[in-house]
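Re: that backbone. Tokens:
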């Protein structure tokens, strides 16, 4: 939902949320464009609604992007522009917490950039990045891509890299990691300023406790 509140990254498992995913023309959040946006609404751990639309990016889709997601120029020719699709997406999400894989460094950058350009405001929804969650919960895995996690949990990866399929995989993975995260959090101290976990860090003057959401939160404490 658009507003003036600032979104906050959370490291939490919750029962109500919206998982979302984007497909794009490439990996640059400066010059690339969205070609598909999908989302799944979950209430009390159960899927209650879905949202998915292709998007006309107003440019041609590079071959290397089509090869990943299978989305071609003809498929998006009559699709809505992102100005419209993004508004529909934000109406779908309301003020629910957003969940997604690598959204902190990727998907949300596209959303914020375009919401700012189209409406002059950005959505203030808090969010959980399942990549960050996986790095904490599944330390035995070397790689934490969404497909790696799905494979680990025996979740089907069929149709990966189309946004709605990725949302379904991501939702299943989030539910699997939820109990592990809750268990881990019990043994960890949380930041008094923002509620994220504290991590042991090393600086110029030795070790200290620092907030895991640095640089968003700069809380530190001596060990
Ligand atoms: Zn903090």
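Recovered sequence:
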């Amino acid at each position: 939902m658009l507003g003036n509140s600032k979104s906050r990254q959370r490291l939490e498992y919750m029962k109500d949320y919206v998982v979302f995913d984007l497909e794009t023309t490439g990996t640059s959040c400066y010059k690339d464009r969205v070609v598909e946006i999908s989302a799944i609404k979950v209430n009390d751990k159960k899927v209650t609604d879905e949202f998915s639309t292709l998007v006309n990016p107003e440019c041609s889709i590079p071959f290397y992007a089509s090869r990943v997601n299978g989305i071609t120029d003809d498929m998006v020719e009559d699709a809505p522009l992102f100005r419209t699709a993004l508004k529909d997406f934000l109406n779908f999400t309301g003020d629910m917490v957003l969940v997604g894989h690598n959204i902190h460094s990727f998907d949300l950058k596209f959303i914020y950039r375009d919401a700012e350009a189209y409406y002059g405001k950005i959505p203030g929804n808090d969010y959980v990045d399942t990549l960050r969650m996986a790095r904490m919960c599944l330390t035995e895995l070397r790689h934490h891509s969404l497909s790696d996690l799905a494979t680990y949990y025996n979740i089907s990866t069929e149709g990966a890299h189309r946004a709605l399929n990725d949302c379904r995989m991501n939702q299943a993975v989030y539910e699997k990691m939820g109990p592990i995260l809750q268990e881990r959090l019990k043994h960890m101290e949380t930041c008094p300023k923002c509620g994220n976990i504290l991590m042991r860090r090393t600086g110029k003057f030795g070790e200290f406790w620092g907030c895991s959401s640095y640089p968003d939160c700069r809380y530190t404490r001596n060990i």
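The chain has seven helices and ten strands. The domain at 2-185 is CATH 3.30.420.10 (Nucleotidyltransferase; domain 5).
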